[in-house]
Amino acid sequence: MLAIVDYQMGNLRSVQKGFERVGADAVITGDPSEIAAADKVVLPGVGAFEDAIGELHRRDLVNPIKDVITQGKPFLGICLGLQLLFDVSYEGGEFEGLGIVPGKVVRFDVASQYKVPHMGWNQAEIIRQAPILDGIEDKTYFYFVHSYYVAPDDDSVTAIKSNYDGDFCAMIWRDNLFATQFHPEKSQEHGLAVLRNFASL
C-alpha cells in the first residue's frame, strides 16, 4: 500500500490523483497504524510550518513517519513535507521540525524584483541522479510555490538545485528518503514521471 499522510494540511486529493494517473493505487489516511503498515509513504503539505508540525504531533503521526523512514521503506516528502523533515524552521518564529535531516528552513532573501512567494516553473539542476529521477533530463522545469526553502547542514543530501536569485535546494535524497520542494503533482508529464518512479520503487 502507498499511503498519503492526511494531517489536514494541503492538496491531498491532487497528489492522490497524480498517482492514479500513473497507475498507482494511493490511499489517503490519517491513521497512524495504516501509515506504519504501508509499503511506501508520501508526506505532502501546503501551509504554515507551525500548524503542520503541530498537527503531526496532535494526530500521533510523528513516530510512524520516523519509523517508516528508519525501516527503509520508500518515503516522499512534497513541498512543506520536505521542510518538515528538517531540524528547525524560521517561518513566523522558530519551530522544531522532525529532525530527520539536519538543517534548517529559511525564507528567501532576494532582490526587490523577485517576488516572494516564489511561484511558477523553474529549472532543475540535477546534482545526483536519484532513482525517482529516472528518465528526467537535467534542466527540466518543475512547478514551485513557496516562500521558504531548506538549507541542509550536509549538502551531499541535495539531489536537485534550482535558482531564484541564488541557488537553493529543490530536492533531497538519502537512501530511501526522497523529498522535493517542487510539486510533482502540478508539474505535468515530468512530475508524473517522478511519481511513477517513486511508486515503482
Summarize the structure in words.
There is one protein chain. With 201 residues, the chain is an alpha/beta fold. Helices cover 25% and strands 33% of the residues. The protein has a single domain, classed as Rossmann fold, CATH 3.40.50.880. It has six helices and 14 strands. It is globular and about 45 Å long.
Sum this structure up briefly.
The protein is α/β, with parallel strands linked by helices and 201 residues long. Helices cover 25% and strands 33% of the residues. The strands form three sheets. Strands 2-1-3-4-14-13-12-9 form an eight-stranded mixed β-sheet, with helices on both faces.
In terms of topology, how is this protein built?
Elements: E1 2-5, H1 12-21, E2 26-29, H2 32-37, E3 40-43, H3 49-58, H4 62-70, E4 75-78, H5 80-83, E5 86-89, E6 95-96, E7 101-107, E8 118-123, E9 125-126, E10 141-146, E11 148-152, E12 158-163, E13 167-174, E14 177-180, H6 188-199
